[in-house]
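Journal club prep — side note

Before the paper discussion, L.F. wants everyone to see what a predicted structure for a comparable chain looks like in token form. Sequence:
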Amino acid sequence: MTDNQILQGLGLIAVLAVGSQLLASRLRIPALIVLLPVGFTAGALTDIVNPDELLGNAFSPMVSLAVAVILYEAGLGLDISRLHGHMHRVVARLIWIGVLITWGATVLLAVPLLGMSTSSAVMLGVILVVSGPTVVGPLLHFVRPTERLQRILIWEGSLIDPVGGILGALVFHAVVASGSSDLRGKIGQFAASSAVGLIGGAVGAAVLWFLLGRLHLGEVLGTTAQLAAAVGVAALCDAIRDDTGLIAAIVMGMALANLPGVSLPARRPFLETLVSLIIGLLFISISATVTPASLRHVVLPTIGLVAALVLVVRPLVALLSTVRTDLPRGERAFIGWMAPRGIVAASTASTFSATLVADHVGGAEKILPATFLVIVATVTLYGLSAHPVARRLGALRPARARPLLVGGDPWAIDLGGALRSAGLDVLMWAGREEQRDLIRGAGLSLAPGELLAAATGEGAELEGITGVLLLTEEDDFNALASETLRGTVDGFVHRLGPPGLSHGVVAPYTSGDTLFGSGLSRPELARRYEDGARIVSRPAADGIPDGHALLFLVRPDGRLDPVTGTRTPQPGAGDTAILLGPARTRTAGRVRAD
């Protein structure tokens, strides 16, 4: 290819990757549903979207390193402390039971359905055991199942990818060697590959622990150090032994997520942006290598294979993995309805199939198109059906808002009671013990003492919290906490406005919308409350009485819509209004409303 064709091809791949993700976000569907057909179409209609021609022999190593970055970022979210109760047992079973049953069933089905040789069917089976955070994570974010389900499925997807990658490499070498290795030798190879990955991951984690925990690198240098370490260690491990970089990457991420003395933010904008771009580029590139001619004779057989995997194999794996655990029936059933295939399956198939075809292994030419169809079918099926299935099974998170109110002044506790009376699951946090006693006395749920410290100090996500209201009497604390917590909550973070633009050391210089607008700053709200104003809730359809100020609207579906300095929500049918009543002043020995 000429230089101009290479530039055009690379540019078009990038545009298609980002454009597909933008379109998917507008349609509110998982991005892979758009990426795969777009890449396939681009490969079929153009000659320049061809990664094998664009990158040559560098394509496969670049795919491996890109997947390692994805798995490293996924490993950063695997905090072992969040796996409690029976979740450890379920995740471990999903890995080993899932691998054995899915692999065996795929081999048994692929030989008669796809007309493959046993060697090709074994290769296809080990490719299809993986799931992966690149597909499970976005689907779960879209579906919003219960927190326990989300943790279990994210852990399964993140851990099964390196296992599948290693098994794929071992099976590939065994097939190429025409089965000359005995069982003991294969087990030894697996152990050696695992050891290389584990040692590499431990070394990389130790280096990053020193850099991040002892040298206290800033956000930019800290992020680039993580990226360099993940890519460098994965490349070294892969050079020593194929696909061991996947294990090293996930081990590094998990280690940093669990080691003391390493402070990582809950949100990592650069890494998250990079991973999103990598996913788009990889899916466009790999799906472009699948030709229409290669799909001609595998579509119907692969549909039969997908039906068996979805309707029989995965439910059986979920049943065996959750037996004698405390998971309710609905959550067990949802685990049986969530096993999409993702980028590791695609990259493994793309890496190994060409060599097997060149070695004239029977049916090897069907591995990549069959894998492509399984990915398309499972992502589409689960992406479109997961939410209604989770709703039917009762496996969704409660739709109603769960705000966290930070502050223990009497008016803040009054506000918590009003929101609770409107049907919200209110959680409060206060620093002083006397304030905490008042919160308990009001019958409101009190957050653990370490909750806010963990979120602000260690970057932990506030799981289950749909919004944070910072209501303390310290304006600088409210400002700093709003900056820190923004991005750790799946919802809004708002603070009370200071009394003036120049008040405080930090507050005047922090961004973010303030609650209630300039007319209700922190001291003004406290003054009105001291003068007898009270917070009440009433149907918004009744209107807002004179002298009352609108603070929040609670929507019929349980969403909390606050009044801020830049936005006043408009009441609708069925809304509940949270109002600040008029203050009362004493004149001539009697109480008079303002």
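L.F.'s comment for the group: The CA atoms of residues 80 and 194 lie 21 Å apart. Keep this in mind when we get to the figures.
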